[in-house]
Amino acid sequence: MKQVEKQASPKKGIRAFWEDETGEFGIKQIAATVAVIIIIGIIVGIVRGNLPNWVNDTWDFFMRLINEMTGASA
Known about the structure:
Strand content: under 5%
Transmembrane segments: 27-47
Keywords: Membrane, Transmembrane, Transmembrane helix
């Protein structure tokens, strides 16, 4: 009797590509790391751009509170 060899049919498509990734560092891990780095970069850019305004507003707020508590006028 002749045995039929089973050949693994290659999976096709992007989903199959993502499912087949194995190893210590897969593409999924690298993509997730890059996404996190980009998100952190965006957050740092926003904070860095607004930081002088936030510090100035906070300084003015505390100085106004101190003036109100001491009865001094600016």
